[in-house]
Structures are given as C-alpha cells and as structure tokens.
Amino acid sequence: MKKLFYLLLSAMLLLPACEASAQKKFHIIGFYNLENLFDTYHDEGKNDYEYLPDGANEWTEVKYAQKLQNMAKVIAAMRKDNGVWHTVLGVSEIENRHVLEDLVVEPAIEAANYQIVHYDGPDRRGVDVALLYDPRKFTVIESESIPYTFAGSAVEFSLSKEEQERFRTRDILMVHGLIDGEHFAIYVAHLPSRIGGKGQDLRARGGEIMYNHAREMMEKYPGIKCIFMGDMNDNPFDDSMAVYMHGRKTMEEMTTEDFYNPFWSMLEAGYSSLYYRGEGNIYDDILVSDSLVHGPKGTFLIQPIVRGKFYGRVFSKPFMTNQSGQYKGTPFRTFSNGAFVGGFSDHYPTYIVIKK
Fold it and tell me: How many Cα atoms sit within 13 Å of 125 on the Cβ side?
C-alpha cells in the first residue's frame, strides 16, 4: 500500500512538468528585414561598392561586426520573450550566404544552430532573401528560387517589353519541409521597392507568382500549410496582397483558396513595422493558407498571441527604437541621413505562432 502511495505521489509531481512540456509544443514562424547586411568584400557583377571600406558608407570590418551583433541581439531577444528559438526565420536584404554564415555563429544565437537556405539572385545591388531554420524542428525536403518573370501574368504593366527585359529584382524563395510530420511550403519575398516611382503593378506580379506557385503545391500535397512572408513594400490592403495573394483581413471571410493576413487588423489598430515618408506601415507581412486557419483538429493552426486578440506580432523593444529626436518612436536603423549610427534595422521583425 505504501509503495502504491509513493507511485501515485511521483506521478502527481511529474504531471505539471509534463503539462508544461506539452504547452511548449508551439513554433515561431517569423520574418526580419536585416537592412543591408553586407560584408566588406566586392561580389563580382554586383553594385555593392557603397558597402566597401573605401565606399560611400566606409563599410569597415568594425561596422560589419557591430551590424552582425545587433542582428543577433534582436533574434536573441525574441527567443527570450518566447522561450524558444524561431523554427523558421525568413530574412531579406542580405548580400550572400557568407553574411548569414557569420550571423548564425554570433555568440548570442549560436545555440539555435540555425541552418541556411539561400540562392544567389539577380538583384543588381546583390541583396537576396533567405531562410534560417532550426533543424531540430524543421526538416527541409526541397527548395526553389522562383524567378520574377512577366510571362503569363494577368497584371497590366506600365513597363514596356524592353523595360521588362531589363528589369531585375529579387527571386522568391520557396522552402518545402516538415514540422512534426506536417507539410509546409514557406515563401520568402522582398517585392520591388517603391523608390524611384516603381509601380504597384510590379509588386502585384510578385504576389501573383507566389500565389500561383502555392496553388500548385496545394494540388500536389493536399492539406499542405502554405505561408507567405516578406518585405512586401505594400500594406495588407494593397492589391499585391489583397487581390493577387488573396489576402483576407478576417478568418470569417476566407474561402479555401484564400490566405489570412493577421497584420491587416493590426495595422488598423495602429501597429507599424516601419515608417515610410513619415507614416507607419506594415510591409513585413506573414499570410497563412486556410489550412492553418480552418484545418482539422489536432493539426497545426495559427494562434492568437497579442492580447489574445491579434494573430501576429510586430516585435519591438526600446533598444531597437529611436528614443529621441526627429525620428523618435521609429526603428533605430544602421544609417541615418547618410551617417552610420550603429542601429539595428529600419524594419521591426514580425512573427506568428502555430500550435497543434
């Protein structure tokens, strides 16, 4: 009888630990624009001259080292808040694989053991997108660098055929993998910028490319969870996301062919991931397919994480934010008015949480 009592007592003492362990079975899926993470060497064929020691930005090894430390500090801060490392973290504005290899071994984040999926793209400045992932949680099956092309598009373009042939921008990265046995297709994008008057039609085409590819993946792998993430250079209500990515503001208005954009309602509530021409915007979006919203019970679904109301988070801390001066309350960036100020990025990272 005494032996049975001790067995029951031991089981009761272990129960909270088991419940705590079960509650940890969630995954952080995020995106971060690293704002011009360049090394100090010239990449042949790329216009990276301003990020050389003798370039306009006087980009030295000391500045590069500080930039790496700053990026790692933000990623580590997100881990501290969440209690876990990101399962996958999409990144943009990185020059090459080398800068990511330097980043993932930074002391602040090396315990994450992040692995890298990256392809060299055609952007003339040399900036690419990539995916960092925790191999203990995410198993890569295949990946693809999807070229930005104009062929077969339903978008009406302002560029002439000759201008289209000369146009270069970032490819879109697709990584297909498994999280706890479930198929995911994760798309990382950095759609054409607004600088120089680039039209919304170019970003609409990027959204169209992602959406069409995702539909193909859904047909090939029924029930697959598809996630779009990136610096879209548009707000959630713009055509690139609301029309061509089939983004929806609420779960209730979705069909099985739509994507839910949790940052739409957050933007309307006053959240911002960056400031453009003095106005707050959320260009750093994460959209999820219907299978992550209305999927079967017991499978991964997106979770509310901010006040139990919002299904996304714009991550900001005081050290990442200007505390005074003209740009008070905006992201503390690397350069300001052409001068190196040692900040972090002109974008805040964003993320979602999924859980079974």
Answer: 17
Q: So what's the pLDDT on residue 50? A: 94
Amino acid in the structure at residue 149: T
- Over residues 297-309, the mean pLDDT reads 92
**DSSP 8-state secondary structure symbol assigned to residue 283:** -
Could you tell me the two tokens for 177?
């993998």
For residues 57 and 335, the answer to whether their CB atoms sit within 8 Å is: yes
Measure the CA–CA gap between 156 and 254, rounded to whole angstroms.
26
Q: Is 153 left (phi over 0), alpha (psi -120 to 50) or beta?
A: beta
Calpha distance 227→260 (Å, rounded)? 10
Distances (CA, A) of 202 to 58, 124, 209, 262: 32, 16, 11, 23
CATH topology for the 27-355 domain: Deoxyribonuclease I; Chain A (3.60.10)
- Give the burial string for 192-228 (b: 16+ CB within 10 Å, else e): bebeeebebbbbbbbbbbbbebbeebbeeeeebbbbb
Q: How far apart are CA 263 and CA 271, in angstroms?
A: 8
Please write down the HEC assignment for all residues of 42-70. Answer: CCCCCCCHHHCCCCCCCCCHHHHHHHHHH
Given a cut of 90, is residue 25 above it in pLDDT?
Answer: no
Sign for the pseudo-dihedral over CA of 260, 263, 264, 269:
positive
DSSP string, 239-273: HHHHTSS-EESSSTT--TT-EE-THHHHHHTT--S
Asked if 273 and 234 count as a contact pair (C-beta separation under 8 A), the reply is no
| Predicted structure pTM score | 0.92
Retrieve residue 33's tokens: 């624009």
> Based on the number of CB atoms within 10 Å of its own CB, is 97 exposed (0-12), middle (13-18) or buried (19 or more)?
middle
